[in-house]
Amino acid sequence: MVDALSEGLAYLGMCSILLAFVLETRGRLHSKASPYLMLMAVGSGLLAVRAYLIAEWAFLILEIVWCGAALAALVVNRKGPSAGRSEASS
């Protein structure tokens, strides 16, 4: 049962990340747009769970960092587009 669940999570996560990538490379989404970041965060989060379940520690760390980066970018987006720029120009 865990194997089927784990594999299902892997496929959902993979599809989410690949969808974001395909839409971005086709010019349908920007890599800093919230829908893109959500797809990446969800996909990498699911893959992190899969990595934990199958004890793939290097992959787990990669996916946690990837998910964290996407979530951090989403937080910056919610604060407004000028939030990051005003700090950079100081």
Condensed summary:
This protein is mainly alpha-helical and 90 residues long. The protein has four helices and no strands.
Overall outline? globular
Biggest beta sheet summary: none
Alpha-beta classification: mainly alpha
End-to-end Cα distance: 54 Å
- Roughly how much helix do the residues carry, as a percent range? over 70%
Total E-strand runs: 0
Order of helices and strands: HHHH
> Number of helix segments?
4
What low-confidence regions span 5 or more consecutive residues with pLDDT below 50?
86-90
- Rg calculated over all Cα atoms: 15 Å
> What share of residues are in beta strands?
under 5%
The overall pLDDT average reads 90
In total, the number of domains comes to 1
Describe this structure in words.
The chain has helices spanning 2-25, 34-53, 57-79, 82-88. With 90 residues, it is mostly helical. It has one domain (2-88). Helix 2 packs antiparallel against helix 3. The protein is globular. Residues 86-90 have low confidence and may be disordered.
